[in-house]
Amino acid sequence: MSDFNINDISDKDGLKNLATESVGLTQDAKLKPSIYYYTISRALVAVFEANSYKLPVQVWNEYRNSLDHIMRAAMANDETAKEKQLNSSRGHLLRACLDITKLLCTYTDDWFKGLKKSKAYFSYSLVDNGNFLRDLEHQYAIARNLMITAKTHDMHLGNDSTKDDAIVDLYLDAYFAYKKLETMFYEKQGSSVVSTISYYLLYIKANWVTFLFSAAGKVLAALIIFLIGRYSYNLTNAWHALLS
């Protein structure tokens, strides 16, 4: 992890490879699972803090609990007690790993929901003949479904340590699906800005045309009323003369 770069986290396989490399740096087999989860969580915490400018308190609390068990393991009198403490430490790091993944997914989900509520969202239908907006909605549905799938398996966490990695994988699938959604949007940011400007120009133009037609109609109606009122007497006399 000494040469860790946040840009290494481009997909799930890249992140897992980074964790596996970190695991290979220790000879203590009992610490390997903890190092694996710690590497993943540390990388994702870096992403979260860089984007939100906030500290994920619940994740740091899991780190604190994990460290407490590691210290207890170091002071244990026998191997059984040491192994028990290390297993507890691993459990906290596993929870830290899942917590930060959930935070990132929720963060992006809330961002996209807010985007959909904005007045500018409809203007994105002008990008790529509507394909951009369709692709965004499709990717959001994929990410959300993956997150729901991961949460349904979360209840089994800790019941069987051999399945914990599979649950982590499910959450990572959801995270990278949300990450793809965000990347898709910002890759088209230039086009999105242009479409937003075009949308508001059309909106202003349409409102001005409506205003001009409305104003012209009102002026014409006022003129007709004025003329009828002014010449109604002559029109009445001419009508009577025609009938007589």
How would you sum up this structure, described in words?
By secondary structure, the chain is an all-alpha fold. Helix content is 79%, strand content 0%. It is built from 7 helices and no strands. It has helices at 12-23, 32-52, 57-74, 79-117, 131-154, 164-187, 189-243. Helix 1 packs across helix 2 and helix 3 (57-74) packs antiparallel against helix 4 (79-117). It is elongated and about 105 Å long. The termini are far apart. The mean pLDDT is 80.
- Helix/strand class: mainly alpha
| E-strand count | 0
What is the total domain count? Answer: 2
**Main sheet properties:** none
CA distance, first residue to last residue? 109 Å
β-sheet strand percentage: under 5%
Task: Give the H and E element order.
Answer: HHHHHHH
Mean pLDDT reading: 80
Give the low-confidence spans: none
Q: What's the total helix number? A: 7
Shape estimate: elongated
The percent range for helix content is over 70%
Radius of gyration: 32 Å
